[in-house]
Write a structure and sequence with these properties.
Blueprint: H1 2-50, E1 59-62, E2 66-69, E3 74-84, E4 98-107, E5 110-119, E6 126-130, E7 133-140, E8 155-161
Antiparallel strand pairs: 1-8, 2-3, 3-4, 4-5, 6-7, 7-8
Length: about 160
């Protein structure tokens, strides 16, 4: 019995080492994926910052992104989507829910926070008015059953008019 103990211990140690190496490689691969996603988001932010839509022109905003409306001096920043309780297709819900977006507006040194609310079970655009501007918007993606939407995945499709 004793002559099997040492090889068995060595084999167990080898398995533990291999498992730790695989875990390390998997963790590094996940970190590389995260770094890649962050780089992509930073690139998208730079691209969007350089695009200045006109009044009446639809444009997307991601969380943390800003844009300047041409000729208006109006800077818009999507701060967050703190709530998305919209009822997914195929789910049984008590209420339709809603998606809330926090949009920061800045014009002539005045900064305001605007809460845009889109009701659930409503796949068309919603509209809200603030400070003589009309905001026509849609929050994407629409929730799906058994799927969690990460903050960076949200897009606010937005059209600003007077």
């Amino acid at each position: 019995m004793k002559r099997w103990t040492t090889p068995l211990i060595l084999f167990t140690l080898c398995l533990a080492i291999v498992a730790n190496v695989l875990l390390y490689l998997r963790t590094n691969a996940e970190l590389d994926d995260i770094r890649s996603n962050v780089a992509s988001l930073q690139k998208n932010l730079t691209i969007l910052e350089s695009v200045s839509p006109k009044l009446g022109q639809e444009f997307p905003l991601s969380v943390g992104q800003s844009t300047l409306i041409q000729g208006e001096g109006l800077r818009l920043t999507l701060r967050a989507v703190p709530t998305d309780s919209r009822c997914p297709p195929g789910a049984t819900c008590i209420t339709e829910g809603q998606a809330i977006c926090l949009l920061q507006t800045e014009r002539e040194g005045s900064v305001r926070d605007l809460q845009l609310t889109q009701p659930g079970l409503y796949h068309d655009y919603s509209e809200q008015t603030s400070d003589s501007y009309k905001y026509r918007f849609k929050v994407e993606p629409y929730p799906a059953v058994d799927t969690q939407t990460a903050s960076y995945q949200y897009r606010l499709l937005l059209t600003v008019t007077k």
